Amino acid sequence: MKLQYKILFIVVALVGLSSCNDFLETVPDTRVYLQNLDQLEQLLVSGYADNSYTVIGELSSDNVDDLNSPDATGIRYNYSPADRYHEQLYRWEDVDLSISEQNCPSAVWESYYKAIAIANMVLEVVDEMESTGEIEGTPMTPRDRSRLAAVKGEAYLIRAYHHYILAQIFCMPYRGPELSKQELGIPYATEPETSLKPHYERGTLQETYDKIEADLLMGLANVSDDYYEVPKYHFNVAAANAFAARFYLAKREYEKVVQYATASFKGNDPATMRNDFWDLAEEFYDEDEAARYYTSVERPGNYMLIDTYSTWLRSYGGRFWTHRDAASATIYGSGPTWSRLMPSFGSHLYGSDSYGYILSCNCWEQFEYTDKIAGIGYVHMVRNEFTSQETLLFRAEANLFLGNIDEAFNDLYIWNHEHIMQREISTNYGSMNELDKEKITSFYIRADRINAGNTAYPIVYKFHIDEVCPSDKYHVTNEIEPYLQCVQHFRRIQTVHMGQRWFDIKRYGFSIKHKWGKDDVVVLQPCDKRYAMQIPDEVIGAGLEPNPRD
After folding, report:
1. What does the alpha-carbon distance between residue 58 and residue 494 come to, in Å, rounded to a whole number?
2. CB atoms near residue 161 (< 10 Å)
3. Bridge partners of 307?
4. Would the pLDDT of 427 be above 80?
5. CB 3.0–4.6 Å: which of 55, 94, 118, 345 could bond 103 by disulfide?
6. Are strands 344-345 and 320-321 parallel, antiparallel or unpaired?
């Protein structure tokens, strides 16, 4: 059948298709006539999941507290959760409530496999174009071949990335080449679906990571910045390398982490890609203006932006949020160079330690009206999915395990320095100072920072990464541990409200606890089977093997 007459349908057995139009760029039809490069590029706009894993990650992590649980003074409230399944996530229970809500596990599973299906459709057509050497019956020019390679690279990266996030949520953390053969993976979809009930196997976690790596390397070999009007809405060179650094950090292949993290800076000094947001915080009129700037393509440290549908911000002030101890351990608390520091916006100083401070720049709601008179539309949250700041911390962690403490410290210094505000925001909230090694070693060994039994949300945790992912070469030593604590603390602050802390908890092997209600405490031990969220009930019902439970 000639390509120009070939009609492709998105038919995916693992998902049901339902979505609103994309907020950043729009492809309105799921029935697509793929005839040329413009159409392939346009279809890939829809190749990014529009459901967010933020809610799953945050409620599972130590970044939230339960206001229905008594604080140190005995004060507690009687709030309802923003959604019923939030309670199940917070208690690390298998989720079977609100299975259609846009950020629940079922919806995330569906949205991510839909994105994978689009990537597979594009790759099928790319293969056909490459085999014929023609587009719409005309031989490809050198520019056509270059554009086609870029499309191919983006599609492979999309497929690798979405499988990677699914593995982070629904699988145990990567455990090395041997132990990972004993853990369940996820179905790895590599071809467009043409039947209604295909049979899938989960395979092993090692097999999943092997396939992700193969796709990632293929994407890296072909990715380009040359053919997109706004590269930061797509996988571009910087974002692809940042993704590679994140992937190899999970595998503890630290030389590659340094290699790809450095490549993401594209020859620039990372200090020149600094987080200028903190210099400007006082000049923003309100939180909306601050959030739009923080997630703008103009900021050099923003590698890739993904538009998602999320009402996570509406949990603010409710039962579960970055309240109390969780706030004190992150955005409202102390660090090696600061004490109770948070930015102001215009005349506002937003939030409190009791009810939770919103770091509005990275999770603020951006509303798309479909009818302003009726006040209806879609709730968006634009994710800074890859940034120079987070990638800098990838490199710092890798250098610590490689024994390069000075190099790691230099990256930590840059991260700290760029958060020093150039203006005094309020004498009540202090200021940040420059970082030095003594501040790191003294702050992160204090007994009151450690995960003791009487501290619900500490800053310092015991690392079990050597048990989670054993290595003959790399170990947590007394020399590097304070710096490693600094890295995980800075990353926790960098990604708060975004869901990525949960992935760090799993790979570090942290034991965390959630205070629940009046007098209950739920504890998650290192390598707990609940590290792997249960796959959706409807997928289990279709015959896919569930995650084991103790």
Report:
1. 13
2. 31
3. 382
4. no
5. 55
6. unpaired
CA nearest 323: which of 90, 56, 52, 84?
Answer: 90
- Whether residue 348 has pLDDT greater than 90: no
Q: What is the DSSP letter of 465?
A: H
User: What φ, ψ does residue 349 adopt, rounded to 5°?
Assistant: -125, 110
Taken in order 130, 38, 107, 303, the sign of the CA dihedral is: positive
CA distance 296 to 153: 24
Can you tell me the distance from the alpha carbon of 66 to that of 47, in angstroms, rounded to the nearest whole number?
A: 36
Question: Judging by beta carbons within 10 Å of its beta carbon (0-12, 13-18, 19+), is residue 357 exposed, middle or buried?
Answer: buried
1-24 core/surface letters (b: 16 or more CB in 10 A; e: else):
eebeeeebebbbbbbeeeeeebbe
Residue 178 DSSP SS3: helix
3-class SS of residue 146: helix
**Chain mean pLDDT for the chain:** 85
Helix, strand or coil, per DSSP, at residue 521: strand
Residue 246 CA to residue 263 CA, distance in Å, equals: 13
Mean pLDDT of 173-182: 98
What's the whole-number mean pLDDT along residues 294-303? 87
What is the Cα–Cα distance from 487 to 254, expressed in whole angstroms? 15
- Which candidate, 447, 521, 509, places its Cα nearest to that of 476? 509
Q: According to the model, what pLDDT value does residue 431 have?
A: 67
Query: 147 exposed, middle or buried (CB, 10 Å; 0-12, 13-18, 19+)?
Result: buried
In this prediction, residue 187 carries a pLDDT of: 97
Q: Specify the higher pLDDT residue, 2 or 341.
A: 341
Helix (H) or strand (E) holding 66: strand 65-66
d(CA 281, CA 384): 18
Please return the burial class of 417, using the count of CB atoms within 10 Å of its CB with bins 0-12, 13-18 and 19+. Answer: middle
**3-class secondary structure per residue, 266-295:** CCCCHHHHCCCHHHHHHHCCCHHHHHHHHC
Residue type, 311: T
Number of H helices, E strands in the chain: 19, 13
Alpha-carbon span 30 to 10, nearest angstrom: 6
Q: What is the pLDDT of residues 87-133, one digit of tens each?
A: 999 999 999 988 778 899 999 999 999 999 999 999 999 999 999 99
Tokens of 77: 């409230």
Per-residue pLDDT tens over the stretch 364-387:
777 777 877 887 878 888 889 999
